[in-house]
Amino acid sequence: MSHSKGIVGALILSSLLLSPLAMAEESQTFAAMNEARHAAFEQHETELAMQAKDQLKTQQASAAQAQTESANHS
């Protein structure tokens, strides 16, 4: 019996401690912050993709230049 009271007490305590977090998800401030975080992530992801694309172009250009120089020396 004592064990079940301990479990019930732990559940009640955890629900009291976590209830502000559950309510935070419904608040407008939380939603706005979440949206801003998502937008920043998307922007960062786009920037990384553009950097990767630029690096690939640079690598291809230097490979083509090296191949041209190699053919000219032959």
Question: What keyword list fits this structure?
Answer:
2 helices; about 70 residues; elongated; mainly alpha
Tell me what you see in this structure.
It contains two helices and no strands. It has helices spanning 2-24, 28-73. The chain has one domain. It is an all-alpha fold and 74 residues long. The chain starts with a helix and ends with a helix.
Quick take:
The protein has 74 residues and is mostly helical. The protein has 2 helices and no strands.
Strand content: under 5%
Number of domains: 1
Catalogue the unreliable spans: none
What is the typical, i.e. mean, pLDDT? Answer: 81
Structural class category: mainly alpha
Please give the number of β-strands: 0
Indicate the overall shape.
elongated
Sketch the major β-sheet. none
CA distance, first residue to last residue: 91 Å
Radius of gyration, rounded? 29 Å
Count up the helices: 2
Give the topology, please.
Blueprint lengths: L1 H23 L3 H46 L1
